Amino acid sequence: MEMEPSSIFFMKSDVSVPGPNQSPRNHTKYKEIIATLPRKENVLGAQRDSYIHEYQGYWKASLEFPERMLFIKYEDLMNDTFLYVKRIAEFMGCPFSAEEERQGFVKKVVDMCSFETLRNLEVNKGKVLNSGTGPFKVENNAFFRKGKVGDWKKYLTAEMGAQLDQITEQKLIGSGLSSRAP
């Protein structure tokens, strides 16, 4: 599953999202980190380059082995969820029959897999992930953000988002991929 670079920035970086009493737009740490991304010695560069390398590898594999690798953009999945759930089912060799579609099974699967449903499962309400012997405890609900396309706009300015897009586009040159939503 592929996502736009601004979303990846939050998922792949060690930058904390501002707390409820902080203004996201005034959180200068994002701006400082984005400014270092084009340089080789940047804080997140190795991690970001690693993501882009993985992204290109999955894309190449999906072209070479389409029966083994399904490449879907998260934004596309969110824009036409029913189409992509059916495509995923077909890819897995379990297509919905015409009768199942008439009975609303696709909608049932979409509803069961929604962020809202998963977030509200008992296992994800306030329980702590067993992190082994380390000092850090992580609540299960920390793994759920909003699941909305473009939520990064609450934390980055349009200029910062454009910078991330530009950096990613430069690294994708020649791959046949684009970080821009269609």
From TrEMBL:
GO MF annotations, alphabetized: sulfotransferase activity
* This protein's UniProt keywords: Transferase
Write down the superkingdom of origin.
Eukaryota
Cross-referenced InterPro entries:
P-loop_NTPase (IPR027417), Sulfotransferase_dom (IPR000863)
Q: What is its EC number?
A: 2.8.2.-
Location of the Sulfotransferase domain: 49-175
Q: What class of enzyme is it?
A: transferase
Which protein family is it in? Belongs to the sulfotransferase 1 family.
Q: What is this protein called?
A: Sulfotransferase
Organism of origin is: Hevea brasiliensis (Para rubber tree)
